[in-house]
Amino acid sequence: MKIAVLVSGGVDSSVVVDLLYKEGHELHLFYIRIGTDTGEGDCSADEDIEMCTLIARKYGLPLKVVSLHEEYWDSVMAYTLRTVKEGLTPHPDMMCNKLVKFGYFEERWGHEFDKVATGHYASIVEKEGKLYLATAADPVKDQTDFLAQISYTQLSHLIFPLGDIPKNEVRHLASEAGLPTAVRKDSQGICFLGKINYNDFIERHLGTRKGPVIEIETGRKIGEHKGYWFHTIGQRKGLGLSGGPWYVVKKNVRDNVIYVSNGYDTRKQYGRVIPVEEMHWITENPFENPESERCMPSTDSNESAETDCIRIAFKTRHSPEFTEGTLCRYPDGGYTVTADKDIQGIAPGQYAIIYTPDRRICLGSGMISIPQGRKNRKRHGES
Q1: I need a labelling partner for 6 at 20 to 30 A (CA). Which of 222, 318, 332, 371 fits?
Q2: Residue 156's pLDDT band (boundaries 50, 70, 90)?
Q3: Annotated active-site residue in 96, 309, 328, 362
């Protein structure tokens, strides 16, 4: 096959090149250059490109460095700043995959190839003629949560050669192949910022506005913050408060107020009911699949008898841990995820990633909304 391989200069994409080369495919390597609006912090791009060049030279393959800087800024960065300004928690890595790596790249270059390969830790399985996004063999490195907004068309054009290989084995394969990236450290995410401090970036674009930090149990002002957009639900570090630990448990966007609670196990951190306005399904809507495990609404969710509910596993953040629960669909199309046990730091703006109960298939995802609903959020300005 004629395959476009997205390389980053890291060990994962380098091993993908090695594996596909040994299988005899015609490979063309691509490095996508992105960055902030000033061109700063482009993920150590020069060093990355140097590594990619070494890999291309080792196998005698063509390498093309392509720029999607403007597209990245207009889509992912604009989304990130807009979401933060609304008082929500963004998921830029998910949007980067959906809009840039498998969106703009596909439109410009990827469509010319039989497949596009990446170093993501995920799998693709086929069942009854349909393709499904599936979890990786390495549960710690699994990245299906970063891919849960891609479309079926995008999924159909992708291959993930590392899906069945544990991370430690990937390092071993890199060493055996003599790859220069074998001992290189993994990237730490939020690639679009590179070496730029996140708060500095947000301040440069949204500025600062002082507001009170309120202890939610007592209503007592215990400090000040520089703007609600610097904080997210569940945050513990960076609050500058003594006598901690303190956790952000609520935000009033309209009045620029941050509410915090004290203690290592404060109940204000926890919840079970997660409202989701819309769901994005990758391959099929599980409510239309007769094999989905139907169930009664959870007693925690206060759903009506007409609500359609199925059993699921889900995640609300990048973690190897799954939570079991139910997903209910309202007659008007809204959704509620209800966990079987309390979970920590439910942050509106982040995504509920939905899996089959056996944790194998990633069905899709939906953005977590304000508990009172969007209309109430606009009126009350709280999250």
Answers
A1: 318
A2: very high
A3: 96
